[in-house]
Amino acid sequence: MPSGHRQDGRDRLDRVRGAFAGLAAGDAAGWPAARHRSALLAGWARRLHRELDAFAEERQVTTLPVPFALNQPVAPLAVGPSDDAEWLAWTALTIRENRAEAFGRLAGRDDFRARISVWAALDNLAAGKLPPASGHDNPHHFDDAAAVRAVAFGAAGLDPLEDACVTNAEDGVLGAVATARAVAALTDGAPMADAVEAALGALPPDTAIGHAAREALAAARAAGSPFAAVPALDAAVLDHVYSYGVAAAQTVPIALALADAAVTSARRTPGVERVAVERPGVEEFGAERPGVERVGVERPGVERVGVERPGVERVGAEAFGAGVSAAACLAPVADSAPALTGALLGCAAGYDALPAAWRERVRTLAGCCLPELAGADLLDIAGRLA
Amino acid sequence: MISVRDRARGCLLGLAAGDALGAPAENLAPEEIAARWGVLTEIERGGTDDTEYTIFAATVLLRHGHALTSEDVARAWREEIVARLDGPMRGAGFSELGTVEALRRGLEPPLTGRWHAHGWSDGLAMRAAPYGIFAAGDPDEAARLVEADGRVSHTGEGILGGRAVAAAVAVAMTGAPPGEVAGAALRAVPEDSWTARNLRAALDVVARTSRPLRGRALPDSSGRGLHDSLGRALHGSGCGLHDSFGRALHDSFGRALHDTVVVRHYPWTDLAPEAVALAFAAYTAGDGEVEASVVIAANLGRDADTTAAVAGALAGAGRGEAAVPARWAERIGPVAGRCLPVVAGRDVRDVADEIVKGL
Fold first, then answer.
1. Cβ–Cβ of B117/A142 closer than 8 Å?
2. Which residues in chain B are contacts of A241 at CB distance < 8 A?
3. Which positions are annotated as binding Mg(2+) 1 (chain B) (predicted)?
4. What is the mean pLDDT of chain A?
5. Nearest Cα to B309, choosing from B263, B343, B340, B278?
């Protein structure tokens, strides 16, 4: 990397925060976020929602119900982070602990919400079944719960394997390892292409996730931009047979492909996305200046100009938004694919480069899955890892 | 002396009867079954995918014998299942449709069984019996052959479920007692697998709880079976066996089994490690007797058509065609081809005879 050690430390913190805030923004951008956050509303309101859903089906009404507040605070239904951001935060807060013990403390509780793989693992732990059996004897061993948590491990430069094996096996574990490798590479300042290669190295081609990752990358590269890639990714990767869209073999490949496409297409489109070149002495040209489009790295002492310099890759708000938005368009996987895409692009861009409104919106956790995290500051939690 | 042909017919008739008996109880809890039927003992409607996919597997196996490869099976799926689909698949589980989608994408095994997320399903276990008949007395070969089939549609524990059932049927075909048959299933899978752990746990439950049919109503050789006894008990005294059987199923035995092998936070019932464990528990609790094994399995609910089909295949192979209650066998005719048009009109008896003819 071109910058010195002091800059590196600061960059690293920025990128770790970027991974966390990026994941939370993607988490918030997908349609399931409102459903997760509606857990904070009264149970009867959610029951009415289900009844309205049945009503729409019975009466053939295309005006589909959305989560709604009646005689309750409306704040939970505002755009904001939900399950994945909270599980990432929980992981960061417990990352130095023995993983089976950290999960074991959840096993006796019934006041939180989690993926099927996590619940099945907790039931296994409660029955005395330890890792890796807790993750293997698990109907959703293939889901991406561990891949989401692996963002924290990658950001901390730690191996996610022990954590992943508590709740997942096979593709679910491979997805976690790949995600952690990509995030670790990006946190170290590697370009996105290297991060994607690092992830692919963890995904054997004869596995579902390894096959899908290569198909997804090829499809997205051929399409040229993240949004253009949406139909191709739907065709190449999504399994419309099964009832739950959180398989790591779908969401991790989509995240890698869209992050890759977002960076690649931004580089090809001067004026839309620019690559920053560090130019000391122009400190006044900063992020806080009104009317300045937030692209590239934004920190004092750095001017952003549309010049590409070999070896330097700066991902900005435009690329971040393009990748995350496209992931959110893939409705079946919109629960976690945008979150994972956001983690990769957010890590590459750094926190300061993310759109300010999103940065603010995703900082405070709702506690919709882990109630003890209500009001927790995700940025502060991320900072402890860096 | 029960001939190999009798055992083969007993195996597939037991499978078809279990499929048909269990079909209306699929996805129900034991309590719901007890509330609706007391004890479900009578076949209400035809069989489902279990019987039709079993016939299909047997047909492909007979074409290739011991030389069967995954590529042979994939070709058969392409030519005889995928090519004949002109609309939605009917009566298929996740693994079958997932496999069809994988084949449509041009994938080859084993990726066809890995590409979709349903490789854990009991869809291979449900069609594994013909491999056990074909390799009667050779559980290793039965397991090897069913794995060649399974790599097309399954992976991991889904393949292990098929191996357990095929190996067990191969041993049941020798007339071995249930304990030995269940031992063969365990030997066919790695000790450190979900299937093995669930099998051991389910067999433990059978060993330590009172079995619902112990000492009661075992059928005699004239074909008067559990049903007659149940009918007498129910209609004669107005209480008794029917009620107590139902209670036993959903009290100690059934509840303990569910607590042991059913995943609480998962809504689907077709996990191979669960279904195979329930099937072997029913077969063992029924002492390998056809009617008891099938009735116990069907009344345990969950993927009841598949668990009862597997229990019926094991018991039928052990006891032969004559041990399948006549009132059930009468209901088993040529299959409709509702799930697999390519097997329409085939009768499991003919399929059994064809497998035996090649031995």
1. yes
2. 94, 97-98, 101, 116, 118
3. 48-50, 303, 306
4. 89
5. B278
Mutate to test the interface with B, among A109, A168, A207, A239 (most CBs of B within 10 A): A239
Closest by Cβ to A247, choosing from B117, B263, B273: B117
B199-213: average pLDDT: 87
Q: Tell me what ipTM this predicted complex has.
A: 0.90
Alpha-carbon span B29 to B33, nearest angstrom = 6
DSSP state of A352: G
- The C-alpha of B167 sits at a distance from chain A's nearest C-alpha, in angstroms, of 22
Percentage of chain A exceeding pLDDT 70: 87
Distance of CA B158 to the CA centre of its chain: 14
A241/B194 CB distance under 8 A: no
Set of chain B residues whose Cβ sits within 8 Å of the Cβ of A137: 194, 197-198, 273
Sign of CA dihedral A363, A364, A370, A373: positive
Q: Please, what is the average pLDDT of chain B?
A: 90
Number of CB atoms found within 10 A of residue B67's CB: 9
Q: Which CATH number among 1.20.58.220, 1.10.4080.10, 1.20.140.10, 3.30.470.20 corresponds to the domain B4-357?
A: 1.10.4080.10
Average pLDDT over residues B140-145: 98
Q: B216 and chain A: CB distance < 8 Å anywhere? A: no
* pLDDT band per the 50, 70, 90 thresholds, residue B250: low
Q: How far apart are CA A319 and CA A327, in angstroms?
A: 12
B298 contacts B285 by C-beta, under 8 angstroms: no
B53, containing H or E segment: helix B49-64
**Partner-chain contact A123 B110, CB within 8 Å:** no
Q: For residue B249, what pLDDT is reported?
A: 61
Chain A: give the shortest CA distance to residue B94, in Å: 7
Between residues B351 and A268, which one has the greater pLDDT? B351
Q: H helices of chain A, where?
A: 5-29, 32-37, 43-58, 83-94, 99-107, 116-126, 133-136, 145-156, 161-167, 171-187, 192-200, 208-223, 226-237, 248-268, 317-329, 337-349, 356-363, 378-385
Burial label for A282, CB within 10 Å (0-12, 13-18, 19+), is middle
Q: State the virtual CA torsion across A243, A244, A248, A251 in degrees, nearest 10.
A: 100
pLDDT in tens, A191-211: 999 999 999 999 999 999 999
Å from A42 to nearest chain B CA? Answer: 22
Distance in Å, alpha carbon of B290 to nearest chain A alpha carbon: 30
Quick check: A99 and A131 in contact, CB under 8 A?
yes
Q: Cβ A211–B111 below 8 Å, yes or no?
A: yes
DSSP string, A321-332: HHHHHHHHHSGG
Residue B237 pLDDT greater than 70, yes or no: no
pLDDT over 70 (residue A156): yes
Domain boundaries, chain B: 4-357
Beta bridge partners of A377: A364
- Cβ pair A137:B197 closer than 8 A: yes
Q: What is the pLDDT of residues B293-326, one digit of tens each?
A: 999 999 999 999 999 999 999 999 999 999 999 9
Whether B243 has its CB under 8 Å from any CB of chain A: the answer is no
Q: Does B180 touch chain A (CB under 8 A)?
A: no
From the list B98, B268, B271, the residue facing A241 with the nearest CB is: B98
Domains of chain A: 9-385 (1.10.4080.10)
Q: Does B239 touch chain A (CB under 8 A)?
A: no
| Residues shown for chain A | 386
CB contact (8 A) between residue A120 and residue B271: no
